[in-house]
Amino acid sequence: MKKPALWFSLVILSVIAAIAAIAVWQIHPRKGPPGYVTSSSCRPCHQAEYRSWKKTLHSAMFRPVTKDTDLQGNFTSKNPLLIFSRGDVEYVVGNRWEQVYLRKIDGEYYPFPASWYVKQKKWAAYKVHSWQKTPMSLKCNGCHTTGFDPATYKFAEFGVGCEACHGPGSRHVANRKMISSLFCRSCHGSGVKKQTDIIRTVSSAVCGQCHNRGKNKPFYRQDNAPAFNFPVQYVPGKDLNRVFKPNTPAEDKKNRYWWGNGVAKARHQEFADWGKSRHSRALTNLKQNSALTGEKEADACLECHSADYRLPGSDPKPTIHTAKYGVTCVVCHNPHAVGLENASSRKRNSPCVSCHTSTMDECFMQTGLVHYPCPQDKVECVDCHMPYVVKSGGWYSIRGHAFRIMSPLGNDSPNSCQNGGCHQDRSIEWVRQEYRKFYKAADKQ
Q: Quick one: pLDDT band at residue 442, thresholds 50, 70, 90?
């Protein structure tokens, strides 16, 4: 009578052991490099970040068409550029300024030869003569997808997901499951240790891998590697220049990408402009001057001169010797947009005044002039220091990131007065006259 009970117990134990083995196999970190698991795997633990990210343009940068509202273009138009129908479109790129429509042909993504300008509500020519020579895998997909494989042209996820900035997350997910699993905790313990299984960095190069123009450097030590329009071996937080050769004004023979004053003329060049700004050199300049000001005083300056000091997550806070980054993109741009979903309610001046109030006071003491030439209730910092310099969607819609006033005197570049959002209805002669009135020494600068 006891044998059936014994066999039954053995069977139950065997089943439990098998289930446990499968569970361990599924969640235990594998050997070798981590793989991509997509943003949906981040959602269970990072719900607030996921929900907020989902509302950003990054999440919808490139996606399959799943519903009618995905396509904003007027497909009943009689425009001769419209040589394709709504039903021909399988994928869409863009959402705010311009939408490019695509179809998969022989395993490759190609754009149709007309794009839709969202704000202007009209069709525009898009690579009319070269669209069939514009495979997304070489031109776009490294930035419009996550986990792009340059060897196979496959990718893990449509759009710019979590792992585009944090690196592949399979090991991170597996480690967290081990810590949270009751079965695994019996051996691994319940204490959560600080992990190095995911990348967290405030480096601007994370944004620069896509907000930049250039070509990849040969990968896998292959001299005949394809010339991708994006870096293919970049690891977030590392040196972008090791794997990517950015465009420069000297190479721009047709003046397509740079204005005469060296500021970016085309979209996807914010990183290049930032690299020329004082923000990018904020920490370097502070370190160079620390010998004169004293290390203790320099440490106090890190609040405005160092992103890794200023932002949460630094414990303990870095010193003038250990700080790594100056004023990087994430000081002004919240990458997850948590709490900032309603961007129209924000004060655009707030990121600036927290550090630059003393600058404005110093300007008044030296010149006797207020910092701003226009009424305070009519103008904001970005209107003068970040004028619109790039056309996207058929109009000037992207601000410059060189963080400097662009003078109306001298060249054909956009200027802060007419492209800041204030005096676009005025003539260039009027603008120059008013500029000289305020900046009396402008002609000598």
A: very low
- The whole-angstrom separation of Cα 403 and Cα 383 is 10
Distance CA 419, CA 230 (A): 30
Distance in angstroms (rounded) separating the CA atoms of residues 107 and 215: 23
Strands (E) across 165-316 are located at: 214-216, 244-246
> Is residue 127 left, alpha or beta, with left meaning phi > 0 and alpha meaning psi from -120 to 50?
left
Tokens of residue 210, six digits: 């896509």
**pTM of structure:** 0.85
| Cα–Cα dist 81/126, whole Å | 9
Domain ranges of the chain: 39-167
CB atoms within 10 A of CB 109: 22
Binned at pLDDT 50, 70 and 90, residue 30 comes out as: low
Q: What is the dihedral of CA 22, 26, 28, 31, to 10 degrees?
A: 110
**Peptide bond preceding 316: is omega within 30 degrees of 0, i.e. cis?**
yes
- The string of pLDDT tens digits covering residues 384-414 is 999 999 999 999 999 999 999 999 987 789 9
- Per the listing, tokens 């990210």 go with 53
pLDDT per position as a tens digit, 331-361: 999 888 765 544 444 456 678 888 887 766 6
Checking if the pLDDT of 301 tops 70, the result is yes
Give residue for tokens 């959402």.
Answer: 95
| Distance, CA of 183 to CA of 297 (rounded, Å) | 51
Q: Which of 93, 118, 296 is nearest to 210 (CA)?
A: 93
- Range in 28-37, 119-128, 201-210 with the lowest mean pLDDT: 28-37
In our burial notation (b when 16+ CB lie closer than 10 A, e otherwise), range 115-153 reads bbbbeeeebeebbeeebeebbbbbbbbbbbbbbbebeeb
Q: Which of 74, 112, 116, 111 is nearest to 96 (CA)?
A: 116
The DSSP element (H or E) to which 25 belongs, if any, is helix 2-27
Tell me phi and psi for residue 388, to 5 degrees. Answer: -70, 120
Torsion (CA) 174, 178, 181, 187 in degrees, nearest 10: 160
Q: Which of 128, 125, 153 is nearest to 139 (CA)?
A: 153
Q: Where are the alpha helices (DSSP H) in 32-181?
A: 47-54, 136-139, 141-144, 162-166, 170-180
Locate 380 and state its tokens: 């904001």
Tell me the C-alpha distance between 155 and 137, whole Å. 10
